[in-house]
Each structure stands twice: as C-alpha cells, then as structure tokens.
Design a protein that fits this description.
Layout lengths: L2 H15 L1 H13 L8 H12 L4 E4 L9 E6 L2 E10 L13 H16 L6 E8 L8 H7 L8 E7 L17 E10 L15 H15 L8 E8 L10 E10 L2 H21 L3 E6 L10 H13 L18 H5 L4 E6 L11 H6 L3 H23 L1 H13 L3
Helix pairs in contact: 1-4, 1-11, 2-4, 3-4, 4-11, 6-7, 8-11
Bound molecules: zinc ion (ZN).
Length: 400
C-alpha cells in the first residue's frame, strides 16, 4: 500500500479503536447541556481528553474566553496549519437541540485520528474549542484576539437533519448574516388602577417596537428574517411596567443588507420609545457574517465522506436561512462545514428531535463517519500541496 493510503487508513483505524470513548464524550455533553460561555464542563472534558493524546499542547483559556481552548499538534516539519473547530454550547431551555455535543466529539475524534499520523506529516493541526455559537459570537471574539491569524484553513462538522454533504458550488452552504440586539425600555412605575396617569409604560414601548418592525416586513428582501422575544414584560399586572426588555435578531443575505435593515429597526425602536414617552437602550452584539464556504475543500470533503461510507444526499444545497459565527471566519480564511444526517427522516432544527437524534445509534454512527471524513480532509490539506494551493486560490479569487 502506498504510504498515503496507509496513513489514511491509520486515521480511520485510530478513530475506530477509540469509538466508545469518543461517543461517551459526546453523550456526556448531551446529557449535561451548558449554554454559551458557560460550557465549563464540556470544554474542560474535551480539552483534557485531547491533552491525553501524546504530542498535543493545550492552551486554555484562549483569546480571553474561559471556555475556549487551542490544542495544537505539530508534525515533523513546517507546513500549513489546519484548524478543526469544536463547538459545545447548548440552547437555553432546550439542551443540545443543535447537536453541538457531536461537534465537540468530532474534535476528539479528529485529534485521535490525526495524532496517529502527524509524525509523518508537515504542518500543524489545531483543535479549537469555540464557545457560544448560539448567539454569543464566540468565534468572532477569538478572531479579534488573533486566534486565527496563523490558521490556513478551518473545518468542522454540523448535523444536517436528514441531509449529508458538503457544499461544492455557490450558493451552496451560504447562510444569512445576523445582527443581535438587546432592547431595554425604561418608563415610570405607578399604580395601574389608582394613578396610571403618573406612569410611563415600558412594556408598551417594547410592544410598539415589535409591531413597528412588522410594518417593515413588506419592505425587505426575500431572505430577510426579523424575529425576537420579550424577556421582561413587567413584574405585576397592577404595576405600570417601568422596565421591559427583549432580544431581537436581524438576518439578511449579506452584511450590507443587515446593516441597512438594522438602521431601520433601530429607528423603529427610537420611534416606539418616543410614542410611549419612554427611553430605549439598544445594546448591539457583533454581527455574524454570511457563510462563504470553500468549495474546493467541500469537494474533497465529499469524496472523503463517500470513502468512509456516508451516503451523500445534498447537504448544504443552496442558501440556508440560519446564521453562524463561522461566517466571519469564512471571510478570513478557507472554511467549510460538512453536514451529516442524524435522522433518516426530516426533523426540525433547534428541537427536541435533534436532542434525541444526537444521542441515537444512527446519529452516533453517522457522526463517527463524518469525523473520519473530516480528519481525512485535514490530512489531505496538510499532505496535498496542490489541494491547499487550490483552496487558497479560490479564497483569493472569489468575488466577495
Ligand atoms: Zn448549530
């Protein structure tokens, strides 16, 4: 067998040999969900398990985030650095309804698989523990801290409901950019029956904001998504609410469109405060950019998926209407995410079904397979200079 094939087989064998340990980690994280920036158990467990692999150097915390880490494994000589991104945050009130427990597990699988061959490869593999994907923009803060400065390419896995595949041509694998807002309305409490004329109703301010944004819906591009929740609507029905708070998302096909709609949404927030004689405070969080996947990486990823026995059925076809902090990374360096089915029939995203399928036999089987495909793709990026230069060239020549 040629050395290349032998090394690829070694990656697969190493992951198979540690299957139980990898699945156990994913299951432990599934059963103990932690929301963004509070993933202390998950990030400690994953970092510790990777640290047990000889040759890995672990740095934790990372980039100013307690629950982020970098585990680096150098090869025999200089070469490119490829990062595997491991998420592990859960959804408030839902648990692992986005299957990030499996993404965490893929970090351990990749570490184990690639550790078995790095002594014969040039370059570096990094497993990056990236917190708070769900609304916390963890990767954006890590990027600002310089964590990705020396990274040549980034790769990850994500469940795709009943779909499996990586994107291979525009607009496959793209998604929406998103801006996150916290809104707080401040009024004046008063007795709701006895002297309401002394009150100014913060809840009314927030309600008018929601209905005001509904009037904007007709005048935005097709892909735009405007949605939010009220997190505080008052304390008692007999007290005029002096404080009300909510969270709001503005999603659109590009950063520019998000900025455009966001300006209008903020105007509506101010207007609803004016009409209710309240004040509004708007807190903006970092904008997550639309995803721009690297299709050369996606093509190789797909070939590796087929090689490990995954059945491709069109994951990441066309633009998807979610958003991710991986989008920002994809504007900096070649990036791709491979989707894998955790269910044989369609299931809703962010749901109890995802929580269940992320812990099913089928889900675990698929997750082990895609972890192998991802590790093989990292191997290819380190080993095949022609692939890496093609990947970089695509990044440099695409139009945005
Ligand atoms: Zn997710």
């Amino acid at each position: 067998m040629a050395l290349r094939e032998e090394l690829r087989q070694r990656i697969i064998d190493a992951i198979d040999a540690h299957r139980d340990e990898i699945v156990e980690l994913a299951e432990t994280i599934r059963q103990n969900p932690e929301i963004g920036y509070q993933e202390y158990m998950a990030s400690d467990l994953l970092a510790r398990k990777i640290d047990e692999q000889p040759g890995f150097e672990v740095e934790k915390p990372l980039g100013g985030l307690d629950t982020a880490f970098r585990a680096a494994r150098h090869g025999r000589g200089d070469g490119p650095t490829v990062a595997v991104l491991a998420e592990y945050d859960a959804l408030p009130g839902l648990g692992h309804g986005c299957g990030h427990n499996l993404i965490a597990g893929s970090g351990l699988a990749a570490a184990i698989g690639l550790n078995s061959v790095m002594d014969e490869l040039n370059g570096t593999v990094e497993i990056l523990g990236t917190p708070a994907e769900e609304g916390g923009a963890g990767k954006v803060f890590l990027a600002e801290a310089g964590v990705f400065d020396d990274v040549d390419a980034a790769i990850m896995i994500h469940h795709g409901g009943d779909k499996t595949g990586a994107p291979i041509a525009y607009p496959d694998g793209t998604c929406l950019a998103v801006a996150h807002l916290d809104l707080e309305y401040f009024g004046q409490t008063a007795h709701a029956g006895m002297d309401p004329y002394n009150g100014r109703n913060a809840l009314n301010g927030l309600i008018h904001f929601f209905s005001g944004v509904d009037s904007l819906r007709q005048h935005v591009h097709m892909e735009t998504r405007l949605h939010g929740i009220i997190t505080h609507g008052g304390d008692a029905a007999n007290v005029v609410p002096g404080y009300a708070a909510g969270k709001y998302y503005v999603r659109a096909a590009s950063r520019e469109q998000v900025e455009d709609v966001l300006a209008k949404v903020k105007q509506i927030a101010e207007a609803s405060a004016a009409m209710t004689m309240t004040e509004v405070k708007i807190t903006e969080h970092p904008v997550c950019f639309d995803m721009r996947p690297n299709y050369e990486m996606g093509t190789r990823y797909n070939a590796n998926m087929e090689e490990v026995g995954l059945q491709l059925n069109g994951g990441r076809e066309g633009r998807a209407y979610h958003s991710t902090d991986f989008g920002n990374i994809s504007h900096m360096l070649p990036s791709v995410s491979g989707m894998f089915a955790i269910s044989e029939t369609p299931i809703p995203g962010h749901s109890q079904e995802v929580v269940d399928c992320s812990g099913s036999e089928y889900g675990y089987d698929q997750f082990i397979k895609i972890s192998k495909a991802m590790a093989l793709t990292v191997f290819d990026l380190l080993d095949d200079q022609q692939l890496m230069s093609g990947v970089k060239q695509e990044m440099e020549t695409r139009d945005s």
